[in-house]
Amino acid sequence: MFNTIILLPLINFFVIFTHFSIAEQDDIQPNNGPSSLRDLRRAPQRTEEPKCGTADLSYQPCTSKTVANKLFLACCEQFVAPECHFLCQYETDHAAAKKLILQSLNSRCGLKSLSGVLYCASQNRNNQQCCQDLDLNSPQLLVGSRCLRMCDPGGSQLGRLTKDDATCLYNWNVIMYCHHSGIREISYTLCGTPSYLAPEVFQRKGHNQSVDWCALGVLIFELMAGDQPFRGKTPEEIEESIVNSKENGLHFPRRTFSPNAKYVK
């Protein structure tokens, strides 16, 4: 799957069949009521289907790369410098991924936005298990578990990059593959109270559970300001206010918010 220094032969995964055997009961006689119409001892076998995004299917992503890249870029537009947006794609080809890293090093982007890029790639999920199963902590890499930091940027601080991180960046395609596989559910449904919905819900480009953080932010704003951040007399006007907030930002009343409000992040 990957042309890197770390990949070992893939493990074959088999579907597990579970057979439920029911003990024979003496008080159930043939042709005696409805229970005789079915033989529980010959019940069909139940098959546990392997799930995408798990080790059972070698962490095969659940969503297409096109949809996942749209989510990735939408997050980067908020948290990553514009000159680094070219990194916001789930590139799983080793040569292409290596080219992206070299392009980053030779451009204005550098590695200054690496934390933001990895955060958006993870979509606030811990994908360390995938990276570990794909040998990103292999002793052959001689960097211990250092690369696993890049598989859970929300829970692990990257800190200062060292020469050991060059090995991790060399396997950027594996890191992106695991982050892509971590995206389990994509929805295009538009439902809920309009003033609590995230911009991507209205744009119908696909969204996941991260939109709940937007609803929580609106609630915190209301508790602190006593008013809603998005105004409108109709649902259409509220939608326009929310979508435009990505470019225009929010207006925070100076008299309402205390200086300590800046610590609510």
Question: What can you tell me about this protein's structure?
Answer:
InterPro entries: DB, Kinase-like_dom_sf, Prot_kinase_dom. The protein is mainly alpha-helical and 265 residues long. It contains nine helices and two strands. It has a two-stranded antiparallel ribbon. Helix 1 crosses helix 3. The protein is globular, with a radius of gyration of 25 Å.
Class from secondary-structure proportions? mainly alpha
What Rg do the Cα atoms give?
Answer: 25 Å
Strand order of the largest sheet: 1-2
Number of helices: 9
Distance between the termini: 39 Å
Largest sheet: 2 strands, antiparallel
- Helical proportion, percent range: 25-40%
N-to-C SSE string, H for helix and E for strand = EEHHHHHHHHH
Low-confidence stretches: 3-41
Shape assignment: globular
- Number of separate strands: 2
Percentage of residues in DSSP E strands: under 5%
Number of domains: 2
Signal peptide: 1-23
Keywords: Signal
GO molecular function, one term: protein kinase activity
Biased composition (Basic and acidic residues): 38-51
Architecture blueprint of SSEs:
Layout: E1 17-18, E2 46-47, H1 65-79, H2 94-105, H3 114-122, H4 128-133, H5 165-170, H6 172-181, H7 199-203, H8 211-225, H9 235-248
Antiparallel strand pairs: 1-2
Helix pairs in contact: 1-3
